[in-house]
Amino acid sequence: MATFGAAAVATNQNPNKSIEVSQPPSDSVSSLCFSPKANILVATSWDNQVRCWEISRSGTGVASVPKASISHDHPVLCSTLKDDGITVFSGGCDKKVKTWPLLSGGQPVIVAMHDAPIKTIRLL
């Protein structure tokens, strides 16, 4: 008698070739965005954090290296990167939009506020 699902597990370990980032968020991810100019991944999450990883290919696959993170006062719902590929904008339940020069070590700056949580950001 075969065990239910055993064959599927053995033949289909990672069909999407997914990777797990190192030092992932401790709560649900609310948004992801990739830099248009660098191998940078930014994630926002319900643990009030915006995190950044550098993604690179290695001989054995794909690796992620944590680069930086900032905090909001409440869960962060969205992010986007400026077309320079290194300036992050993030917004969330604290009703603030912050901008952050990702790799320069600069501090985040509040650039906008809203009457309600910010669910999406679009740069023009």
TrEMBL record:
WD repeats lie at residues 22-56. Keywords: Repeat, WD repeat. The keyword Repeat applies. SUPFAM superfamilies: WD40 repeat-like (SSF50978). It comes from the Eukaryota. InterPro entries: WD40/YVTN_repeat-like_dom_sf, WD40_repeat_dom_sf, WD40_rpt. The keyword Repeat applies. This is Uncharacterized protein.
